[in-house]
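[09:14] KT: can someone run the structure on this one? pasting the chain below
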Amino acid sequence: MRVTSTEFKTNFGKYLDIVADEDIIITRNGRKIAKLVKEEDDILSDVRSLYGILADSPLSGMSDREIKGIIRDGRGKKHDSDD
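[09:31] RB: done, structure tokens below
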């Protein structure tokens, strides 16, 4: 969905409800200035973007549901090691 910045500002609550179902592109003077996405989907797309870099990683064989579970449980957090 595309919406002008003025319309977005005027009806902010309405668009918070809509973003649960679809991404929202915010425009100003006909140019894209921002993209509003559901937070969980944004994290999942970030993880999916690593597939090319981590092709041999266990992530490449996981379903979206499994990846979301890892994110939710915090198992994907970076931890320092004593190597």
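[09:33] KT: thanks! DSSP finds four helices and three strands in the chain.
[09:34] RB: yep, looked fine to me
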